[in-house]
Amino acid sequence: MDPRLEKIFEAWYDYEHAPDEDAKDYCREQRSRLIQDAVRVLPIFYSVGDFLHRYRDQFRDWTIKRNLRAPKKRF
Amino acid sequence: MTKDLFRVESDSLRDWGALVRDVEQFNPSLLSLWKEEYERWKHAYQRFRDCEEHTFFTADETGAARRLDENTLRFHRRAVLALLSSGEKCREHLNSLPLEGEEAQERLVFAKRAATLIDGLRETLEVWHPVNVERIAGLKVS
């Protein structure tokens, strides 16, 4: 997997599993920043929302594997 | 006659003390009532996320992703829409409270927290139940 995508998935996972609203807000900003950096170099334009949808199934598989190692509570 | 220290009802002063402590702590402000409403909504939100985590992001017995059938996705969508609707009402309720001073400042904090969860639900809806399916289909990763 592309290390940039891996980094985004980590940030996405942190966002989905943040312990409270304030942490979630912070993690969302971090994830958006990473995605915006990534889509800037892609040949076609994506919004953050398009990106999330495009990679949702990959993220799902990645999260399932991640949860097998050390599951966290979703929030 | 020896006094039984373990019999609470025999000590009326202690009973009064406990009552006064509870009564003085009771502060029926509009904001504290709203916070109870928000906590109930958040509890429902958390139940939804727990259920979603189990169905979408936990492996089945074989270690593979669970199959997301039509009914599961339909229930998922209904739950998101219901939580979005009640969450928006909860936020509108907060904004309509006539608050002053510190409570008015606290309102801003809670409005931001509610917005974070509502935005998260909206994102969930867009990611799993997009309206413009044709455009999205062109973006799918094979």
Protein model, in words:
The complex is a heterodimer of chains A (75) and B (142). Chain A is mainly alpha-helical and 75 residues long. Chain A has helices at residues 3-16, 21-40, 48-54, 56-69. In chain B, 72% of the residues lie in helices and 0% in strands. Chain B has helices spanning 12-25, 30-57, 70-96, 101-128, 133-137. Chain B is flat, with a radius of gyration of 24 Å.
Descriptive tags:
heterodimer, A: mainly alpha, B: mainly alpha, 5 helices, flat
Extended strand count of chain A: 0
**Percent range of helical residues of chain A:** over 70%
Q: What share of the residues of chain B does DSSP label as strand, in percent?
A: under 5%
- Which band does the percent of strand residues of chain A land in? under 5%
- Indicate the mean pLDDT of chain A: 88
